[in-house]
Amino acid sequence: MDKKRSKSIVRAGYYFIITNFLLGIFNIIVGILSGSVAITSDATHSFIDSISGFLVIISEKISSHDKYSKKRDQIERFTTILIAIIIVATGVHFLIESIEGIIESESADYDTPTIIIVIIGFLAKLALTLYLRNSGKKHHSKVLLASALETFNDALISLAVIISIIVSLIWHINIEGYIGIIISVIILKIGLEFIFPHISHHHHHPLETNPDHDHCGKHDQSNP
Ligand SMILES: [Zn+2]
Asked: Measured in angstroms, how far is the CA atom of residue 65 from the centroid of ligand 1?
């Protein structure tokens, strides 16, 4: 087994854990200070992501073990499905939150700490996405590419909030719920395509590291 590759994947897993853990702590502090439920709920999500980072490390540790090297593909597939389930759960949760926001017609008042945390969160998630994506492509790791996509979806959610903030500052209307619905549908589509790649067989699967690789399975990862 390629030790260097394995080390890089585990390192990316740690970066994933640390970034999300720090975002979680940061969100909790600002959430308590500002009393924002949305930020506190974002903190919970970051902690869940942080825990899911251990999936990346555990799956890599197991599949790089000589004893399980033949099951490598299966272990990686299993881990990406777990990450996809987190993506779908995020989409469902955000969809419900957005609909609730519309029904309760929450007024849009964003205080400065909220705006700052959302922007910092967005930039951190974007940086983490790029890092995981590059690392995943370099090492042909579907698990890392799945984490990159999960992080990208979280960045999309932050982006939705940023757009809502800008719109509310200029036009004094709250579009967070509506833009939230659009983003959650996109996230649900991404998550479901992950779990059922054959639905979207006509176009490229988001996890594909090798365009010649067929979806249906027999693919030898041990080739150099
Ligand atoms: Zn997430």
From this structure: 28
Distance between Cα 96 and ligand 1 center (Å): 16
Degrees (nearest 5) of the Cα angle 152, 153, 155? 65
Question: Measured between alpha carbons, how far apart are the two ends of the chain, in Å?
Answer: 11
CA distance 8 to 1: 13
Please say whether the beta carbons of 193 and 80 come within 8 A. Answer: no
pLDDT digits (tens, 9 = 90+) for 59-106: 888 887 777 777 778 888 888 888 888 889 888 988 998 888 888 876
Q: Determine how many CB atoms are found less than 10 A away from the CB of residue 116.
A: 11
Does residue 155 have a pLDDT over 80? yes
Q: For the residues of 167-195, what is the DSSP string, one character each?
A: HHHHH----HHHHHHHHHHHHHHHHHHHH
pLDDT band of 11, cuts 50, 70, 90: very high
Each residue's pLDDT tens digit, 43-62: 888 888 888 889 889 888 88
Mean pLDDT of the chain: 81
| Domain boundaries 3-200, CATH class | mainly alpha
- Tell me, in angstroms, the distance from the centre of ligand 1 to residue 73's CA: 24
Place of tokens 């659009």: 182
Surrounding ion ligand 1 within 5 Å at CB are 49, 154
SS3 category, 145: helix
User: What is the pTM for the complete model shown?
Assistant: 0.77
